[in-house]
Amino acid sequence: MIQVTCHCGAAALTAPSAPVEVTECNCSICRRLGARWAYYNPLEVTLPAPATTQVYVWGDRMLAFHRCKACGVTTHWQSLDGARDRMAINARLMDDLDWGGIRIRQFDGADTWKYLDE
Ligand SMILES: [Zn+2]
């Protein structure tokens, strides 16, 4: 189990395992957040208490980005479009992650919607 916490600790998640790879996306929101996304099945993740996060939804309203109400750190996103088999956790919030063994992939969410390393 991997613990995921915002800066103040109010918003905490638990992931089933450390990611093998994470995604950095250059779309308009991800590049601003600076997040490294690790994808999981929502059924495998323990989510923060709803009262601890605020939600940001924009554009075509496919994703809900959650951030801690107290410290503002973005913790994860969840799908709003019915593709409920996938969510993303901001791996930068994972405790004691060994980044040396994790593949960091670049996703061109701004334009082609393809991985740039393929
Ligand atoms: Zn916080």
List strands and helices in order, with pairings.
Layout: E1 2-5, E2 12-15, E3 21-25, H1 30-33, E4 37-40, E5 53-56, E6 63-68, E7 74-79, E8 87-90, E9 103-107
Parallel strand pairs: 3-9
Antiparallel strand pairs: 1-2, 4-8, 5-6, 6-7, 7-8
The chain binds zinc ion.
Detailed description of the structure:
- With 118 residues, the protein is mainly β.
- The chain has a single domain (2-107), classed as Metal Binding Protein, Guanine Nucleotide Exchange Factor, Chain A.
- Helix content is 3%, strand content 36%.
- It has 1 helix and 9 strands; from the N terminus they run βββαββββββ.
- The strands form 3 sheets. It has a 5-stranded antiparallel sheet with strand order 4-8-7-6-5, with no helix packed on it. It has a two-stranded antiparallel ribbon with strand order 1-2.
- A hairpin with a 6-residue loop joins strand 5 and strand 6 (63-68).
- The longest helix has 4 residues, at 30-33.
- The termini are far apart.
- The model has no long low-confidence stretch (mean pLDDT 94).
- Bound molecules: zinc ion.
- Zinc ion is lined by residues 6-8, 10-11, 68, 70-71, 73.
